[in-house]
Amino acid sequence: MSLTVIKPGMLSSFQDRGRDGYQHQGIPAAGAMDERAHRLANALAGNEDDRATLEITLTGPTLRFDAAACFALAGADLGAQLNGQDIPMHRPLVARPGDTLAFGARPALGARAYLAVHGGYALPLVMGSETTYLRSGFGGFQGRALARGDVLPLHAPLDVGRDLAALQEALWQIRVYLPATLAGKRRDTIRFLPGRHWHEFSDASRAAFAGQAFRISPQSDRMGYRLQGPALAMAQPRQTLSEAACFGTVQVPSGGEAIILMADRQTTGGYPKIAQIASVDLPALAQSLPGQELRFQQIELDEAQRLDVERERAFAQLRDALAPMRALL
Known about the structure:
Blueprint: E1 2-7, E2 11-15, H1 35-44, E3 53-57, E4 62-65, E5 69-75, E6 81-82, E7 85-86, E8 93-95, E9 100-102, E10 112-117, E11 151-153, H2 164-173, E12 190-194, H3 203-211, E13 214-216, E14 224-228, E15 243-244, E16 249-251, E17 259-261, E18 268-269, E19 273-277, H4 282-286, E20 293-294, E21 296-298, H5 301-321, H6 323-328
Parallel strand pairs: 12-21
Antiparallel strand pairs: 1-4, 1-11, 2-3, 3-10, 4-9, 5-8, 5-10, 6-7, 6-9, 12-19, 13-14, 13-20, 14-17, 15-18, 16-17, 16-19
């Protein structure tokens, strides 16, 4: 009825879509860095979006299935193998008791993969969420990343005695077509909207942010990505009031190095906000690595909303297409 951690990997933690409704109490939302891949893995495992997935960073864990389970992987291709055999991404797969899931070398593209199991992991809800907030040590599995020897309970393992070979064959026969908006292709530019203080930045700073290249600093993590590049400054520097912080907000401290707030962002921030990354491109940003070059492209609010609607429509279409799979499970 569980998974056993043989090797923990670089950083593996349980994440869902975030702990909503508590920022006013100083509780960060956290959640999956790449929400698109998190939702995709859950859909392919026959789950709702709110089930936690295991977010795996760069070097994946080695896990032993102690019970039969249906699982799926999405996000970065980290070279997953089941019992030493390569397995595909974006497919529902079956593991038998004793099977070992491991991951290979660092990927050429992307940073994070998401492992979903049908029925989800049996994790306690903390303020209505299964997500792990690593900095404060609560949520998920004991409030931390995985460690060697952890036993991770499954909420709904496959029935004992079920014909697993027949189930795997039936699942394999189901055609899975990913809409282009869910494919997770690498983008040449990250789209953004002007931030709250966009027009207070100098003409040179606005032109630099929208036209020049930046590099993700090694001093970047789940809380925020610090950007190395042209220094950005307000035309007339002034103090700004602290206000709620959002995933994808681009703040600029007095030193001029922009910081993109990520999943584990603080609840409030008072630095000037030059931009807001379009939510449709947050997954591409989450799959970027320190040292990687980023360029930004300004779009209008109507375009950002259209892209959001297109993404949600694609998820709805995928869920409808996967109805035969959920019936099998």
